[in-house]
Design goal:
The complex is a heterotetramer of chains A (293), B (357), C (541) and D (323). Chain A is mainly α and 293 residues long. Chain A has eleven helices and no strands. In chain C, strand 11 and strand 12 form a beta hairpin. Chain C is globular and about 65 Å long. Classes of the chains: A mainly alpha (293), B mainly alpha (357), C alpha/beta (541), D alpha/beta (323). Bound molecules: adenosine-5'-triphosphate (2 copies) and magnesium ion (2 copies). Residues 62, 109, 189, 437, 464 of chain C line the site of one magnesium ion (MG).
């Protein structure tokens, strides 16, 4: 397989990770734990499919996907910021809720427990071997690649980003100079919902369909990438690409009968652990991460 | 007296508030599919606490949840977040089955149970020891390593059960091992006829003992003192002569061993074989159980009972409403408990201030 | 306004705190302030009146409610009852941003600085200069440097705050307030962590501010500072305002009496008086062989940089060796290396002749090493543990029976220590978090000094602790010394070192630059050693 | 008791169906069972009760719930129900049971253990249909490489893979089959994103036809076929609609027909326990050849497939069930 095709596949696989990890970084830098990425992504996928189906247009789907992420992001925000709930508990609940709600409404809207009908999406017919060309028609891929520098810019180069970093490290300090801690966190967590939901939107629209639990653990991989990148958006983005490359490798290696598929499928996970243990030292989370009070 | 009342209110009010919120959310969902909430709730109660069989099923589910809930809470007490409960549970179950297959059929029951249970605990423990060491030695974040190890363990077990050459081990065309020869635990149905047919078994007792032991360990032993200190303030623990890395390793090992123990519920108590996928979802729900149960063994027990009731109840009302309703309710309940606990505490404090003013 | 000194002393009576009409010249007036945290009533009808253009000292024991009162003034907390007026306008319950807008700035006792951000970022936070949607980083740095220069600070605005020394960090805190145009500046225990030259520098800045028309409220536990710098004084006790004085007519003894409600033996603040110094251990108590020996010790910091360079010294039984020095010169690393919390890169540490260089913390403790750590909140206490549980931290192995922790003995130990060291409140089941700073420190001291030990490392043992508690802790240190224990005292407080030590060392740049006998160690000599400029005639050890 | 008492039309025969994980709407065997039961409900006025269980112990609980309510027939859908059905059937000898994909066990001596007399074990010979679509793929694929995408790497799916491989090899001995699996957890059956990437990489490496046996994951395979203009083969039901023009055929499993039949047998009093095998001969297994895909399959190829089918039916070709 050509290096081009390998890279193209890596990028396609990475897109949901990139969105979610970028969103997660933003929220965690403000001090809110992002265990919720999986739920945001799933909700985004469902709302995107719903919007695209009823709106008849994939951009309506994108808007709805973002809307779904926004709602769930704000829900997480209200529960953890206004009501000071434990962020991990809320994260677990949001993820369970996302599975339940998408299933429930899948049933209600399309009468199926497993998938939606085909909806308008982005990927178009591409013949021949030009796999790279196959990605171009999907604006979400470009957007996903763009999300990382955008979040990096927002965090390091804007007043909002400065406040996010301050709030995530030492909220009392930010508060003492009149920064509205809760408001900063609301915005950060809402944006993380929108971004992670875009990852789900990509899944659904690339697939032209929503299927039950289609995020399939990608939110957790994105969380891992974010931690792996030591809460830096760019390094997190690179970690996403690394994970995606390992997955691509896994796909390429499978099918040779010599090794059982299960062992090949372990490759990305083993690689991650080895890399984590070998390369990076201790990761340092934002100091106020997870502290609701 | 007053402090006691405050503590009672503090522990009881959040779940009650949560229940009310969940009831309202449930009503909306039930009405949206055109059913009567009263009827559905009545059915839910009848199917769970209303008859011995249903209650037995609730207890069966409680057993697994106690183990995975304790697993998560041991980790959290030491400041570690173990999300690998599912794989650890599966590993424990598989090891119990292997032990039960390896033992001769003539093994005396108590010995068989002991060996198989020990196998489950040890196998679980190993799966936790690895991320513990990775954390202590290499600073590898346990959230990532437990997620990754989860996939690795499940892949290994999947291979063992579906592809490995194991005529003696697995039953062709299925996803389970052969039945164990020794180590089977009696079911409640064997002892109390009313429970007949339900999966509840003596593992519940073992899980309760484990919960009591966990309580003792946390609050009454020196090791527990060290472990909690590490979780609250690692620097102070280090100052107090505690080897923080060693505590991390120990905590992860114990945490995963408890999850592994949960494997006997299905393998020794219920089906008498290991089946691929029996652990699905239990690890994740364990997180909810630990957190709603506020990391105390008693809380974990009660939260397990609650979530088990909800899960079994979902089955009972399946004829009227889709089972996904229960998924939604689970999320709502956890959110409501999490959100109401600090809120209740705040309101209590405010009330007291007004009273004293 | 006349000093009302003595009016409420000893009785806790605060009749003057209520019902008084504000005097017209006051820029700040607070009346009948009530604030409760759970079971703790932090302020009970406290009042404060500050005139424009004065330096006003706010004093009181630990937990008297000073910080709380100032948090209310700066908008961080809302009072449960009472009135706050600033510049004649009622502002009760305002927000921090309201306060900032009205020119009230607070320098907190625990710095409100984000260590991972640069100085410029910290200063402009909340009012960042913009260029389009982005932040104008260059302008932020320019503006901050400009304000700093105007007030005579020299700083590099691009440095990370986490890399600064405490003194520098404090300047950033003050800069933050000045950047926002603060006219009323509140400082909460600003000198607790400063070296004498740094303190003088601070006074210079404060006087300049006052002379420029600014008003300053200063919380401190050091009475000599109060006398030196303030114009007027307000004394708090148990959440109430118990006295107001004009500084020129007040004496330290008066203030101390008002604070604690009884006479206090003052040692700190008047080292020259010698009042508290019971001189020299008897020869019979002092052991011949050193109890603690440190040889050519090298210790690395968090980033592998060398923090301690070839330090050698000994401490004999019955002697207190004091280590003075500006913070951040390797004292922390030195103590932590001896305690076993940090690896020694080279050199040896001997405890009573036994090499303990590589022993774990626990073994050192069981060999008789006790340690009062400099940071009680991070190291010395598990804040969520009960007082009783904290009283066995580090000794937990000694409190087990065959079934686990021996609860009865832990309770008995707690009762004994609480009584012996006068820890208040006396309930051993309270979480340590709920106690005032001074009482928290007493827990640590009680634990470390209440048990068996031969060598004690006492790092900043009285930091942020009120005079009553300082008196008590000093007495304990002396008693231990007199009982033949070896004590290494590390303190940023020169007066404390001088009051207690038999020999005095100075650390600078990671080296032990001087080790002098008590008689050779005077304020002036030590001050010079500390600033890095070795006095020409002084002989280093 | 089995087969006793014929019930007249519309007199309220009660049938309970417990679905496999995945449940209704999976466009696969759960849906098949659902359609069969619904058809019976319309045709005979049967009351059908559905249960979608959650995790492991719910399967048995679901069966018991229905058995205890004295259903006339209780159907468990999926091989995973095998043990639960056996247990429950033994305990409720007066209730009739049927198990879709019931897997037969052998005892220690290697003899097949017969299911209880009140239990109908409904088995499908998926390998036969897979063999035919494999042969078809090899004949029209214009490539020596053929693709297969499975959900989890488990024995049930191996049956599809083995039959497919055998079919390919039978008509084209020097062809190779690339077989890939989507994952190691049940999520592998509902991860279309992964399915699409697997398929894209196979197409990229020169494969022109992919057969999938992977639940919703296969929807990604169809998407990849659409995007690259290549072909895919559906499974269980006719999946033509998923990617018109790109679905060469579907290997179908008539779960609906079989379920309908069993209900009808209960109605007419002809229900008998025992093992029922549905292969090509019985019409329980087949492949789609209709107006939608006739253009893609040359007549000669179709004729060859018919020959192969009859050879299988006649036992001249024995299709392997494991790889
Ligand atoms: N946020 C809080 N929550 C609970 N109790 C508090 C809080 N802040 C202060 N307190 C309690 O209120 C009382 C007064 O505290 P405050 O900080 O005002 O004292 P202080 O005079 O500043 O003491 P110190 O000299 O030690 O700084 C203390 O008993 C303290 O424990
Ligand atoms: N959130 C809180 N909950 C409970 N107690 C608190 C809280 N915040 C502060 N306190 C307590 O209030 C007291 C006063 O707080 P403050 O910030 O003035 O520190 P302090 O007592 O002066 O400590 P130190 O002098 O050692 O820095 C402390 O004892 C502290 O433990
Ligand atoms: Mg204070
Ligand atoms: Mg203080």
């Amino acid at each position: 397989m050509s290096i081009f095709a390998f890279a193209a596949q890596t990028i396609r696989i990475a897109v949901p990770y990139l969105f979610a990890a970028a969103g997660g970084t933003l929220a965690e830098r403000s001090g809110i734990i992002s265990l919720t990425l999986e739920g945001f992504m799933l909700t985004g996928a469902f709302c995107a499919a719903l919007g695209s189906y009823y709106g008849g247009n994939s951009w309506v789907g994108v808007a709805c996907g973002m809307g779904g992420g926004l709602v769930f992001g704000l829900l997480h925000g209200v529960v953890t910021i206004r009501y000071r709930a434990d962020q991990v508990v809320s994260g677990v609940a949001i993820n369970l809720l996302a599975i339940g709600v998408t299933r429930f409404f899948l049933h209600l809207a399309f009468g199926s427990s497993s998938n939606s009908p085909r909806v308008p999406g982005f990927s178009t017919v591409v013949r021949g071997e030009g796999m790279l060309a196959g990605m171009l028609p999907d604006p979400l891929i470009a957007l996903g690649l763009f999300a990382v520098p955008a979040v990096a810019w927002a965090i390091y180069r804007t007043p909002f980003g400065l406040r996010v970093r301050a709030v995530g490290e030492f909220p009392q300090a930010a508060e003492s100079v009149g920064v509205h801690v809760a408001r900063v966190r609301y915005v950060a967590v809402a944006l993380s919902g929108v971004l992670a939901a875009l990852g789900g939107t990509y899944l659904a629209l690339d697939q032209h369909q929503f299927t039950d639990n289609m995020s399939a653990g990608r939110g957790y991989i994105a969380l891992a990438a974010m931690i792996f990148g030591n809460w830096d958006p760019v390094r997190g983005g690179l970690a996403c690409l690394l994970f995606a490359a390992a997955e691509t490798l896994q796909i390429q290696l499978q099918g040779t009968q010599a090794i059982p598929s299960q062992f090949v499928q372990m490759i990305p996970y083993v690689l991650t652990i080895v890399a984590l243990a070998g390369m990076v030292g201790k990761s340092t989370p934002p100091a106020a991460l997870g502290k609701s009070d | 007296m007053d402090a006691l009342r405050e503590r009672v209110a503090d522990t009881l009010l959040p779940p009650v508030v949560a229940l009310l919120v969940a009831l309202v959310a449930g009503d909306v969902l039930i009405l949206s599919v055109g059913q009567s909430p009263v009827e559905v709730y009545a059915l839910l109660l009848r199917g769970t606490w209303g008859n011995a069989y249903g209650f037995g099923q609730v207890l069966y589910k409680t057993t697994t949840l106690i183990c995975t809930g304790l697993c998560v809470s041991v980790g959290l007490r030491a400041g570690l977040f173990n999300i690998g409960g599912e794989g650890q549970l599966a590993a424990g179950g598989f090891a119990a089955a292997l032990a039960g297959l390896a033992l001769p059929a003539s093994t005396p029951a108590p010995l068989g149970i002991l060996v198989c249970t020990a196998a489950a605990v040890i196998a679980g423990g190993i799966t936790g020891w690895v991320p513990g060491v990775l954390r202590a030695r290499f600073g590898a974040h346990e959230v990532i390593t437990t997620i990754m190890l989860n996939f690795i363990i499940l892949a290994l077990l999947n291979w063992a059960i579906s592809s490995a050459d194991g005529g003696a081990l697995r039953v062709p065309e299925t996803l389970h091992t052969r039945a164990i020869r020794a180590g089977a635990l009696p079911r409640f149905g064997d002892l109390i006829p009313a429970f007949h047919g339900s999966a509840a078994n003596l593992s519940l007792l073992i899980a309760l003992i484990a919960a009591a032991a966990a309580w003792w360990y946390f609050f009454r032993t020196r090791a527990g003192y060290d472990l909690r200190a590490v979780g609250l303030q690692p620097d102070a623990a280090e100052y107090g002569g505690v080897n923080v890395g060693a505590v991390w390793v120990r905590a992860m090992t114990i945490s995963a061993a408890l999850a592994g123990l949960g494997g006997i519920n299905f393998v020794l108590g219920y089906k008498h074989y290991y089946e691929d996928g029996f652990a699905t979802g239990a690890g994740f729900l364990g997180i909810a159980v630990a957190l709603v149960g506020r990391n105390t063994p008693l809380g974990v027990g009660l939260a397990s009972l609650f979530f088990a009731t909800l899960s079994q109840g979902g089955l009972a009302i399946n004829a009227l409403v889709p089972k996904t309703m229960v998924d939604v309710l689970q999320g709502v309940v956890i959110l409501a408990v999490a959100a109401s606990a600090p809120e209740v505490r705040r309101v209590l404090r405010r009330r007291k201030r007004i009273a004293t003013a | 306004m006349n000093a009302e000194r003595g009016s409420g002393v000893g009785t806790g009576d605060s009749a003057d705190a209520h019902g008084q009409s504000p005097s017209p010249s006051a820029v700040v007036s607070m009346y009948g302030i009530e604030k409760r945290f759970g079971a703790v009533q932090a302020n009970r009808g406290a009042s404060l009146e500050v005139a424009a253009g004065e330096i006003h000292a706010l004093v009181g024991e630990n937990g008297a409610g000073k910080s709380t009162l100032m948090h209310i003034l700066s908008g961080l907390l809302a009072p449960d009852a009472g009135t706050v007026r600033v510049d004649g306008t009622t502002v009760t319950g305002w927000s921090t941003s309201d306060a900032i807008r009205a020119g009230v700035g607070m320098v907190h006792q625990h710095f409100m600085l984000v260590p991972t951000l640069t100085i410029a970022d910290n200063v402009v936070l909340g009012r960042e200069p913009r260029r389009g949607m982005a932040m104008d980083v260059a302008r932020a740095q320019r503006d901050v440097t400009e304000v700093a220069t105007r007030y005579g600070f020299s700083i590099d605005a691009r440095r990370r705050v986490g890399d600064l020394s405490v003194g520098e960090a404090q300047r950033v805190e003050i800069l933050k307030a000045l950047f926002r145009g603060a006219q009323i500046l509140i400082l909460d225990e600003p000198t607790a962590v400063l070296s004498p030259p740094e303190v003088q520098e601070l006074w210079r800045v404060l006087r300049a501010l006052r002379d420029g028309g600014g008003t300053i409220i200063l919380i401190t536990h050091k009475l000599d500072e109060v006398i030196e710098i303030s114009d007027r004084i307000t004394v708090m006790r148990h959440g109430q305002t118990v006295a107001r004085m004009d500084t020129p007519t007040a004496t330290p003894a008066d203030i101390a009496r008002a604070m604690v409600g009884r006479d206090v033996l003052l040692t700190v603040g008047h080292p020259s008086s010698g009042a508290g110094r019971v001189h020299g251990p008897e020869a019979s108590v002092r052991s011949a062989a050193p109890r603690l020996t440190v040889v050519d010790l090298e210790v690395a910091g968090a980033h592998h940089e060398r923090r301690v360079h070839g330090v050698s010294f000994t401490v004999a039984g019955g002697e207190i060796v004091g280590i003075a020095g500006v913070e951040g010169n390797g004292q922390t690393e030195l103590v932590e290396a001896i305690a076993g919390l940090r690896a020694a890169r080279a050199g040896r540490i001997l405890l009573g002749g036994r090499d303990i260089t590589t022993l774990p913390v626990r073994d050192r403790a069981s060999l008789g090493l006790a340690h009062v750590p400099e940071d009680r909140h991070r190291r010395g206490l598990v804040l969520d543990y009960s007082v009783a549980d904290n009283l066995i931290l580090g000794r937990q192995h000694a409190f087990v029976s065959h079934l686990g922790l021996d609860r009865a003995r832990i309770a008995q130990n707690a009762r004994a220590r609480i009584e012996q060291f006068d820890i208040r409140p006396t309930d051993p089941s309270l979480p340590a978090r709920a106690l005032s700073g001074g009482n928290q420190q007493k827990i640590v001291v009680a634990r470390e000094m209440g048990g068996e030990f031969t060598v004690l490392l006492a790092a900043q043992p009285t930091r942020g602790v009120d005079v009553g508690a300082i008196e008590f802790i000093h007495a304990q240190l002396r008693a231990s010394r007199d009982a033949g224990k070896a004590i290494l005292l590390v303190s940023a407080e020169l007066s404390e070192v001088l009051a207690l030590a038999d020999r005095v060392g100075v650390m600078s740049g990671g080296r032990l630059v001087a080790l002098l006998s008590r008689d050779a160690a005077t304020m002036d000599v030590l001050g010079l050693w500390m600033t890095g400029a070795a006095p020409p005639a002084a002989g280093a050890a | 008791p089995a087969g006793a008492g014929a019930t007249a039309l519309g007199t309220g025969l009660n049938v309970g169906v417990v679905f496999d994980v995945g449940g209704r709407g999976d466009k696969s065997f759960n849906d098949g069972a659902y359609r069969g039961a619904e058809r019976a409900a319309k045709a005979f006025g049967v009351h059908v009760h559905f249960i979608e269980p959650g995790e492991g112990s719910d399967r048995e609980a679901g069966l018991r719930l229905l058995a205890a309510e004295k259903m006339d027939l209780v159907i468990g859908v999926g091989f995973i129900f095998t043990d639960d059905l056996t247990e429950t059937a033994k305990e409720y000898p007066h209730v009739r049971f049927a198990g879709v994909d019931y897997s037969l066990q052998t005892d220690d001596r290697g003899n097949i253990v017969q299911p209880p007399p009140n239990l109908a074990a409904l088995k499908f010979r998926e390998e036969q249909g897979s063999f035919l679509v494999g042969a078809l793929a090899a004949m029209v694929g214009h490539s020596k490489k053929l693709g297969f995408v499975g959900g989890m790497d488990i024995p049930l799916i191996h049956k599809f893979e083995a039959g497919y491989r055998a079919g390919v090899k039978y008509v084209c001995p020097d062809c190779t089959v690339i077989a890939q699996y989507a994952g190691v957890t049940p999520d592998a059956f509902r991860n279309p994103g992964r399915g699409k990437e697997l398929a894209l990489s196979q197409y990229q490496s020169g494969v022109n036809v992919i057969f999938h046996a992977s639940g919703s994951t296969g929807l990604g395979v169809f998407e990849a076929a659409r995007q690259t203009g290549k072909l895919a083969i559906g499974v269980d039901a006719d999946q033509f609609a998923e990617a018109p023009g790109h679905v060469l055929t579907s290997m179908i499993k008539r779960v609906d027909q079989v379920v309908f039949d069993q209900i009808d047998r209960v109605r007419t009093g002809t229900f008998r326990g025992g093992v029922y095998e549905y292969g090509l001969a019985e019409g329980g297994i087949g492949y789609v050849y209709d107006a939608n895909n006739r253009a893609m399959i040359p007549d000669s190829v179709h004729a060859r497939l018919n020959t192969l089918a009859s050879e299988i039916t006649a036992g001249k070709i024995i299709v392997p069930v494991s790889r």
